[in-house]
Design a protein that fits this description.
globular, 16 helices, 2 strands, two-stranded antiparallel sheet, 435 residues, mainly alpha
Length: 435
């Protein structure tokens, strides 16, 4: 279990970092990038190829980020003076071109055989007790700051609620969240007791029915506490964030135990510390940037770039900077991704990876960096939970089950768009997004 949770933390951190690059480009500036995986691919291959030649990993990662930023520079010069549609088309084409180069240029990338046996960060480290304490304090500080940021986002949302809606929404969120936890525990027990009598899909239908009935119960209870229809989108946000906050404390405990017993899995534990630390550092830097005058210009470009030009701003230069910076962040995510996979193949970077990032950004809330972190946590929680339990509920083979999981992601996004079109932590007044 500990190894699984550590991998989950690493993947969540990597894709949160990957999503932050896309959120900067689209959420804050309105640049539609459907080939974001190209930056990750370049970052991964550049870092690995340089490290195999003996280049230190920090320097190799920095060069990988610069190469990815260079790709953003080239794409920007080719497309940013044209309409937004051209950028979307070019980014798709460039991402496929990069992947096909990785497939066919075997002299450089070893083609479909891929790259293996490259150095991993902190894999040979055996930290002393004081060093482990420093790691523990670092992770604890990052987690504490994360919860503080989450609370600030929730508090801003709650302040906008009318006073009469606070009580029913709180009842719905806490009641439904606790009932959901008890129901899932009960389902696990029932699955063992009823397995000889009831097929897995039948148990899944009963679970869905119970969730629906409990939901209607709390809706009715909330409506009795207020005379008007409560804001259920806010309740949905509170349920999801509260559940993740509780799960986060449990995951934090596992991470602390892994650091304390570092020698059990040095490569993965070291990568976990590095991934979380890099994510926290880049998140902090982006928050400073987007709250600065530079970030306010990006939002102005997203809303109406013609007005921004009329105010004397060089819109092309700002877009170019964003495309390069977002690409560099995705390049760093690519380096971490290669270390997590321990092998690099062209098939590790299909176009679907880009749309995973889009799902994360839309789910968490475009134009909100904290929302991107939350979206990544929800996405990977869904991805791993369904991988283990969906096969027992839905009677499908592995190929069709994978497609069904993608369909469920689409359904989840549709529900979010209906209840909270701005995303879980997004702002409703920022829904224009370059339109």
């Amino acid at each position: 279990m500990q190894g699984f949770i550590i991998s989950l933390i690493i993947f969540t951190s990597i894709f949160a970092l990957f999503g932050l690059g896309l959120n900067l480009q689209w959420g804050f500036t309105g640049l539609i990038n459907f080939g974001h995986v190209a930056f990750m691919t370049l970052g991964a291959y550049t870092t690995v190829l340089l490290s195999v030649q003996g280049v230190p990993l920090p320097l190799a990662t920095l060069v990988g980020a610069l190469v990815a930023a260079g790709l953003g520079l080239l794409m920007g010069f080719a497309t940013l003076r044209l309409r937004t549609d051209y950028l979307a088309i070019v980014t798709i084409g460039v991402s496929e071109m990069i992947r096909l180069i990785a497939v066919n240029e075997g002299w450089l990338t070893r083609g479909t055989l891929g790259l293996q046996g490259f150095p991993l960060p902190l894999a040979s480290l055996n930290p002393t007790f004081p060093v482990r304490i420093v790691m523990l304090l670092l992770i604890t500080a990052i987690v504490a700051l994360g919860y503080r940021q989450l609370w600030r986002s929730l508090r801003q949302t709650l302040k906008k609620l009318p006073p009469e809606a606070i009580v029913p929404i709180t009842v719905m969120a806490l009641g439904y969240g606790s009932s959901l936890g008890l129901l899932l525990v009960g389902t696990g027990w029932a699955a063992k007791q009823l397995k000889p009598l009831l097929p897995a899909w039948g148990l899944g239908c009963l679970l869905l029915l119970a969730l629906t009935l409990i939901g209607y119960f709390y809706i009715g209870l909330a409506q009795r506490l207020t005379k008007r229809r409560p804001q259920w989108s806010t309740g949905l946000m509170l349920v999801s964030t509260s559940a993740l906050a509780v799960c986060g404390l449990w995951i934090y405990g596992i991470a602390i135990d892994a650091i304390y017993h570092y020698e059990k899995s040095p490569a993965k534990t070291g990568l976990m510390v590095i991934s979380v630390a890099i994510l926290a550092l880049i998140y902090w830097g982006l928050e400073k940037l987007v709250r600065s005058p530079w970030g306010r210009v990006l939002k102005a470009i997203r809303e109406d770039e013609e007005v921004t030009k009329a105010l004397g701003k060089n819109v092309f230069a700002y877009k170019l900077q964003v495309l390069m910076l977002g690409g560099a962040i995705a390049g760093i995510a690519g380096a971490l991704y290669s270390w997590q996979l321990t092998t690099v193949y062209p098939d590790n970077f299909p176009p679907l990876v880009t749309f995973d990032a889009w799902t994360i950004v839309v789910l968490g809330g475009a134009g909100n960096n904290a929302g991107t972190l939350l979206g990544s946590a929800i996405f990977w929680a869904y991805y791993n939970v369904t991988r283990f339990i969906l096969g027992d509920i839905v009677p499908l083979d592995d190929a069709r089950l994978g497609a069904f999981r993608i369909m469920l992601i689409g359904l989840l996004l549709m529900v979010v768009m209906v209840w909270r079109p701005q995303g879980i932590l997004g702002k409703k007044e920022e829904l224009t997004l370059g339109q």
